[in-house]
Amino acid sequence: MGLIPVGAMPHVKRFGWSGVLAVGLVIVMLAGINPVTLISGKVSPPPPPTSITGVPASSATAEQIAAYPPVVAGEAEMMWRRFFWQTAIRYPPATMSVVTSSSAFGCGMAGKDLTVFYCPDTRVVYVDTDAYERLRARFPLGADYAVAYLVAEAYGHHVQGALGVFTELVALQARKDPEQVVALEQQIDQQAACYAAMWTITAGIDELDRNTAVMAAVAAVEANRGNAILNLPPGRVVPEVLAQSSPEARAYWYEKGYAIPAPGSCKLEKIAAEGRV
Prior knowledge:
With 277 residues, this protein is mostly helical. It has helices spanning 9-30, 35-40, 62-66, 68-86, 129-138, 143-162, 165-174, 178-202, 212-225, 247-259, 268-274, and strands at 95-99, 109-110, 116-119, 124-128, 229-230. Helix 6 packs across helix 8 (178-202), helix 7 runs antiparallel to helix 8 (178-202) and helix 8 (178-202) packs across helix 10 (247-259).
């Protein structure tokens, strides 16, 4: 018996060996088999998780839940590195600290269910996984993307710090002009929402501000921030506890960042000129 099945010979004569090989590869890939595996005998590793594929299952372990925020952080970090590179400005890397209790927070912060916040002094994004798990129990349909949204906002705050926004805020605070301080704090809040939208679309996720389950979970976290225990020395800024703008203003600038995901869409000058509070 020959090496080539009799039934395959007409196809070989008609399409040639290259054609038959191409069809075979297509069949193999449709079957979910990596052709490289057949050739080399080596199994390709699975692709790394993304903010979409890495969402923890409802039955996820604490370790699996804790692994999700760093995935989002990696995407946000990569996005901002690219934008900074395009403008020839050095991007100062941030780090993420995933802790199991708010008692492990730094930056002079303490309090239950703060969940995610950014410390400009040390360039650290903190995530409290105990609070994250409680949020999942309370908002099972929205908690994961809510935490992703908050992590993206925290990286937006990191960018604000790198661009000197918080230095400007501290200078205003020193001049004791509370009206201007509140105005800038609200603009910072709106810009962070715009920056979070930039991550959302680059991650391939639909507008989160239109997802009521997600935004309900975000609102619960933001409400808890009003109960934060602060021990901040003069000149230290923790952006998550600054004056917030209205949900309508935040949604307006979120849509701007989602429509055109570029830093120019979220400039503070534009936000100040718009005058939304």
